[in-house]
Amino acid sequence: MDINTLLKQQQAFFNSNSTKDVSFRITQLKKIETLLKSNEALLYQAIYEDFGKSQFETYVTELALVYHELSSFIKNIRKWSKKQSVSTGLVNWPAKSYVIPEPLGNVLVIGAWNYPYQLSLLPAITALAAGNTVILKPSELPKKTSEVMANLINNNFPSDYFCVVEGGVEETTALLKHRFDKIFFTGSTAVGKIIYKAAAENLTPVTLELGGKSPTFVMADTDIKMTAKRMVWAKFLNAGQTCVAPDYVLVEKAIETEFLEALKAEISAHYSSATIEDNYLQIINAANYKRLIKLLDKDKIYYGGQTNCENRFIEPCILHQVTFDDDVMQDEIFGPILPIITFTNLDEAIKKVKERPKPLSSYIYSKNKKTINKILHEVSFGGGAVNDSLMHLSNNSHLPFGGVGLSGIGAYHGKTGFDTFTHQKSILHKSFWLEPNVKYAPYSHFKLKIIKWLMG
Ligand code: NAD
């Protein structure tokens, strides 16, 4: 079916008002939950074929979040969709005021490849929970996951309500020529700009979930072993192909050696040659593999960095003695390479971070409240964690997720996500029985006095 016809059908379905019925939405969300749960084996198989992702990582980093949001929406959307009464000033008395949360309409969701299920399905189900229709365009790079989502959704939902359109640049460009009521995009900052421009043609509101270089501050007073443990997990999960992964580390010079040794010990404990195959991902494609191996500066490798182009394998790698001028510090790494930069003066380190675009995430490891608060106060970033990395995403019902500046526009997860796909329609509701003459001409000093009192 061509996009024009598909969108026209979705517009007609939305205009039938069916999606405004919260019971209808809950039924659809339950249907998605059952569909995913009863086809988990297919989902695991597809993502393993795409880039060797294990069932464990797929469940923890993709499906668990989707299930969690589904049950939270099923539980809460009745409450979130209710009109909210607010107070009304004297100037309008007698009247009441309320806000009606209403769905935006026809939504386009464009997904990224690195968490192909989560980054496509989470925004899609959030848009559906808020009462919209959805066209989902997953990333084309993990072919099998795109295919499995298209089959499951297109065979079980009418296309005028929820439909997957597969494809890459050409298909996305074609989709962007049409007028949607909302575009939700996850991907790179460069493509984010293309989406923003296309959306501007129709004044379509956008949420842009983008990337960037996320810094991690490691202070000398930290618990070194625990810091290394949590950081190694967060960095090498998904083989570093995570938008909120610690991109680089700023560590106080005084603990450099001890910290590097702790990182090395952690990597050897969890990614030894005996276990790595089943517990570690491939790089998504040859282009990304080639891009990453160029960043493996042999003079700076402290640990790891073995590669195998046949299965697009890059061993977890620590680079030391890195400077802000090195190639690895120019763009988001998005792979299993962790550069370590030392500093002696925190203000200088903060200044360097602030000279760069605002990151999607940042992490601070320290036991000193003053230091933690100083960094939180002075550095702008999307979101993050203190004494951990990445785990802020696991509190997705309560912590909004989104970037700032070049790392994104808008946010989602939980109620924030519901609001992202909702228009707040404000209503003043009057009765007919009173209409004081005071606002009508001819004006007078006396009327002005009363108006000042009423409106002041
Ligand atoms: P990408 O920008 O290359 O692709 C994202 C989507 O845009 C894909 O569906 C792709 O088909 C489409 N696309 C690509 N080029 C296009 C073009 N010229 N015109 C129209 N559509 C186009 O991003 P990616 O490689 O899939 O993902 C990696 C980037 O995404 C990283 O920068 C990462 O940090 C970021 N990311 C952000 C988040 C987040 O939640 N903020 C999550 C994951 C990834």
TrEMBL record:
<feature type="active site">
    <location>
        <position position="209"/>
    </location>
</feature>
<dbReference type="Pfam" id="PF00171">
    <property type="entry name" value="Aldedh"/>
</dbReference>
<feature type="domain" description="Aldehyde dehydrogenase">
    <location>
        <begin position="2"/>
        <end position="427"/>
    </location>
</feature>
<comment type="similarity">
    <text>Belongs to the aldehyde dehydrogenase family.</text>
</comment>
<dbReference type="InterPro" id="IPR016162">
    <property type="entry name" value="Ald_DH_N"/>
</dbReference>
<keyword id="KW-0560">Oxidoreductase</keyword>
<protein>
    <recommendedName>
        <fullName>Aldehyde dehydrogenase</fullName>
    </recommendedName>
</protein>
<keyword id="KW-0520">NAD</keyword>
<dbReference type="GO" id="GO:0004029">
    <property type="term" value="F:aldehyde dehydrogenase (NAD+) activity"/>
</dbReference>
<dbReference type="InterPro" id="IPR029510">
    <property type="entry name" value="Ald_DH_CS_GLU"/>
</dbReference>
<dbReference type="GO" id="GO:0006081">
    <property type="term" value="P:aldehyde metabolic process"/>
</dbReference>
<dbReference type="GO" id="GO:0005737">
    <property type="term" value="C:cytoplasm"/>
</dbReference>
<dbReference type="InterPro" id="IPR016163">
    <property type="entry name" value="Ald_DH_C"/>
</dbReference>
<dbReference type="InterPro" id="IPR015590">
    <property type="entry name" value="Aldehyde_DH_dom"/>
</dbReference>
<dbReference type="InterPro" id="IPR016160">
    <property type="entry name" value="Ald_DH_CS_CYS"/>
</dbReference>
<feature type="active site">
    <location>
        <position position="243"/>
    </location>
</feature>
<dbReference type="InterPro" id="IPR016161">
    <property type="entry name" value="Ald_DH/histidinol_DH"/>
</dbReference>
<dbReference type="InterPro" id="IPR012394">
    <property type="entry name" value="Aldehyde_DH_NAD(P)"/>
</dbReference>
